[in-house]
Write a structure and sequence with these properties.
77% of the residues lie in helices and 0% in strands. By secondary structure, the chain is mainly α.
């Protein structure tokens, strides 16, 4: 598969994930641990039903670690932020995971971060800030801290997913299923500890959980993880910037949230940052020193010397 096609497919994961903020705010009960558990468990079971396989060796604990970071702890903190903050703000805080991932990748993976990656992240941060600027939005301290925590969890989890890849001969859907079930193992005791027995869900809430589990969890996460395992973090991490764009657009379409000119500019900048990562040649010529053209003088001098030597050595 061509890298550009794989990159687009990977980006669909965060784009689909952006719908979770709207769903969490309007269709899920305020029980983030149980919401997270019922989001990841059915999704993991579905993926393993499609591509069966059990973890081997170190993949038992790796699946638990990846599940905790990418879906368990991440999901709980994300749902807390989504239920305490406007969807656009929660999504933009979560999008900061791109900065965390690139910073961690440069240390753990020794991945070379090029100038256009930094520029793309800077553009993305500016776009995120503009999307957040809403005078009518009240910021909740716990929601903001939860959003930062979810971004950090996903950022570190993304780097480890790239570092460990997947076992030879194992399909990406299988490793995604392992990761989702690892998240379920992490969430189940916490749900009982902090929220008691499972809550009873209304029909509307069950509909929201179905979307969160099978569309966002199974489809969205499988697409993103498959790309993360095969592409450099510097390419995949900025794709999480699609989260706030999707969340903001959904809020605009579904409930008529108004886009200010600054928010529109922010969305454009975020999309521009992603395009810049996917097409580094846009700015590459400004940062890549052109190779100097070979100086023709030495070659010409050598040719003249050789020609003179032949004339001197030849009989007159």
């Amino acid at each position: 598969m061509k890298q550009s096609v794989l990159l687009i497919r990977t980006g669909l994961g965060p784009a689909i994930g952006g719908t979770l903020f709207f769903v969490a705010a309007h269709y899920l009960p305020p029980t983030p641990y149980w919401d997270g558990f019922f989001r990841v468990l059915p999704a993991g079971i579905l993926l393993l039903a499609i591509r069966r396989g059990l973890p081997r060796g170190s993949w038992w604990w790796k699946s638990l670690v990846l599940g905790t970071l990418n879906m368990g702890l991440f999901t709980v903190l994300l749902l807390i932020s989504a239920q305490r903050l406007p969807g656009g703000i929660a999504a933009t805080l979560n999008a900061m995971s791109s900065l965390v991932a690139i910073a961690v990748a440069s240390v753990i993976l020794k991945e070379k971060i090029r100038p256009h990656h930094y520029i793309a992240c800077l553009i993305g941060v500016v776009g995120v800030a503009l999307l957040v600027l809403r005078s009518s939005a009240a910021l909740d301290a716990i929601g903001v801290l939860a959003g930062i925590g979810s971004a950090s969890s996903m950022g570190v989890g993304t780097v480890l997913a790239r570092k460990w890849g997947r076992p030879e001969g194992v399909h990406s859907l299988t490793t995604a299923g392992w990761t989702l079930l690892g998240a379920a193992v992490f969430l189940l005791p916490l749900a009982f500890l902090f929220e008691g027995p499972p809550p009873s869900f209304t029909g509307e809430q069950l509909l929201g959980l179905t979307w969160a589990a099978f569309v966002v969890g199974a489809l969205g996460f499988a697409l993103y993880l498959s790309g993360v395992q095969r592409l450099p973090v510097s390419l995949t991490a900025p794709l999480t910037l699609m989260n706030p764009v999707t969340a903001a657009l959904l809020g605009w379409v579904a409930i008529g949230e108004r886009f200010t000119p600054l928010q529109t500019l922010g969305a454009v900048l975020v999309c521009g940052a992603i395009v810049l990562v996917a097409n580094p040649n846009i700015l590459g010529r400004f940062f890549t020193k052109p190779e100097p053209e070979p100086d023709p003088k030495p070659a010409l001098t050598a040719a003249i010397a050789t020609d003179d030597a032949k004339r001197i050595g030849s009989p007159s």
